[in-house]
From TrEMBL:
Cofactor: pyridoxal 5'-phosphate
Domain of life: Bacteria
Cross-referenced InterPro entries: PyrdxlP-dep_de-COase (IPR002129), PyrdxlP-dep_Trfase (IPR015424), PyrdxlP-dep_Trfase_major (IPR015421), PyrdxlP-dep_Trfase_small (IPR015422)
Pfam families: Pyridoxal_deC (PF00282)
Stated name of the protein: Aminotransferase class I/II-fold pyridoxal phosphate-dependent enzyme
Family note: Belongs to the group II decarboxylase family.
Length: 501
């Protein structure tokens, strides 16, 4: 019988890992160089072909060995990646992870502690207890925090804890701003809550007067209301008036959840922390350090002001937390999550906090927010572009002045297909905008100038393609062949809206 492949842990693990790591790192470097931009060229079909070539057969009868498998697949994944470390990859709240955090995550993978029982994670569970308390204390001295897979799970848990806290009195009703993240609506559905009440957010932020009115209308002595406000909207990075909303909640005895998945990073910035004033009044707060925290996913947290609320998650499974084990002093971890097996995501977070300190992290936050301000000013002064608003965080929404909504969507897809820039989109204030979410502290002003040039160029390309096609059709001379050519080169929705049908 041949020797089984080496393991990652133990005293020998690191020596077995070293050459494999070297192979993976080489493939990361070479793959990024082969891509040569923020995104692979050619769209889904071209990427799919390259992945198939690298990955087929998925389960060969006889394996290739570790180095070849790593080289081939890591290279393919890197070459075909949307890489947030490229300044022109700026669509989403998709941060470029810090090298130090990725290195810590490798150690977590090698050790593989599982956070569902003390006997699988003695030190990792102690570290998690310490770090979650410390991060929660940034919001409220009495608070605790749970580690989650991100904003979606944190929001769901917040709804669950609110539902359970309300249970003795009656049902829970959720109120969200029009600007709230979709995961709250989905969470309400998942938990079988009645459909959320949507409160107007006319300027992109939840309107406290409209909230007050909605709560007055709903009334009801047996219903508990949960208001979910947002600190950093996904589309525009806007922060709801948290203190005013907390006042309205207090007046109506409503619970308050604040989704600070994006804006929570401001807690590290001495200059911008004040923008979150009022956050300490929330019952629960969603934080997401794989956004303004530069962690590889996943690195979510739910801060819970009154740790008694966590009793709702208490759960017994004899093999993990038998009563006598708990009585004998083994920490009971099962109530810290709805998951069972759970990665020690706290390690990369703890390492990053220690490595950079508050000042280091705050400087990163300020860097990307300042960058956004400068980019916005540049757009505002630009004759061919229009700015949505001065950014509150690091999201800049803009549009070419001469583009309609359909054209704008085509421009975004053209950039994706060319592999030259990754921008997001948002429909706000009755119009469509291109969205640059700036999370890369290494981005320079020249990168952002390049971004605008690429948008201009792509916009011209899209116009030319559309006008070429319209004139062909209008002149009635378009041969079947020419039409076919247009159809091959343009995705079907690229034609939509430009062709009278
Ligand atoms: C990103 C985001 C979420 C969802 O977080 P995930 O980590 O993607 O699950 C929730 N709320 C807001 C405001 C967000 O920006």
């Amino acid at each position: 019988m041949s020797t089984p492949p080496p393991l990652a842990g133990g005293v020998q693990g690191p020596d077995a890992l070293r050459p494999l790591l070297a192979a993976a790192l080489d493939a990361l470097r070479d793959g990024a160089a082969a891509r040569g931009g923020p995104l692979p060229r050619g769209g889904p079909a071209a990427v799919g072909d390259r992945v198939r070539t690298a990955a087929d057969p998925v389960l060969p009868e006889h394996g290739t060995g570790p180095e070849a498998a790593l080289r081939t697949l890591v290279h393919a994944l890197t070459e075909g990646a949307a890489d947030p470390a490229d300044p022109l990859c700026a669509a989403h709240l998709h941060c470029p992870p810090l090298a130090v955090a990725a290195a810590a995550d490798l150690a977590a993978s090698a050790l593989n502690p599982s956070m569902d029982s003390w006997d699988q994670a003695p030190a990792a569970s102690a570290l998690e207890a310490l770090v979650t308390r410390a991060l929660a204390a940034e919001i409220h001295p009495a608070a605790d925090a749970l580690v989650t897979t991100g904003g979606t799970e944190s929001n769901q848990l917040a709804l669950l804890l609110a539902r359970e806290a309300a249970a003795p009195r009656g049902p829970l009703r959720l109120l969200v701003g029009e600007n709230a993240h979709h995961s709250l609506i989905r969470g309400a559905w998942l938990l079988g809550l009645p459909g959320p009440v949507t409160v107007p957010a006319p300027a992109g932020t939840l309107d406290p007067a409209a909230l007050d009115e909605a709560l007055n209308e709903l009334g009801g002595p047996h219903t508990t209301f949960l208001v979910a406000a947002t600190a950093g909207t996904t589309d525009a990075g806007l922060i709801d008036p948290l203190d005013d909303i907390a006042d309205v909640c207090a007046a109506h005895r409503a619970r308050l959840h604040i989704d600070a998945a994006y804006g929570g990073g401001l807690l590290f910035s001495d200059v911008r922390k004040h923008l979150l004033h009022g956050i300490e009044r929330a019952h629960t707060v969603t934080l997401d350090l794989h956004k303004l925290g530069w962690q590889p996913a996943a690195a979510g947290l739910l801060v819970v002001r009154d740790p008694h609320d966590l009793a709702a998650l208490t759960h017994r499974a004899d093999y993990l937390n038998a009563d006598d084990d708990t009585d004998a002093g083994l920490p009971d971890l099962l109530g810290r999550s709805l998951r069972t097996t759970r990665r020690p995501d706290i390690l990369k977070i703890a390492v990053t906090l220690k490595a950079l300190g508050r000042t280091g992290l705050g400087a990163l936050v300020d860097q990307v927010c300042d960058q956004a301000r400068q980019f916005a000013a540049h757009i505002e002064a630009h004759p061919r572009f229009e700015l949505y608003d001065t950014p509150a965080l690091s999201t800049v929404l803009f549009r070419p002045t001469d583009a309609d909504d359909t054209h704008l969507a085509h421009v975004r897809r053209q950039l994706l297909t060319d592999g030259t820039a990754v921008l997001g989109r948002a429909d706000l204030a009755g119009r469509r905008w291109l969205k640059a979410t700036l999370l890369n502290p290494h981005t320079r002003p020249t990168d952002l100038a390049t971004l605008l040039e690429l948008v201009t160029k792509a916009s011209e390309e899209v116009s030319e393609e559309a006008s070429g096609e319209v004139s062909e059709e209008a002149s009635g001379e378009a041969s079947g062949e020419a039409k076919e050519r247009v159809n091959q080169h343009a995705t079907p929705d690229l034609l939509e809206g430009t062709t009278p049908r």
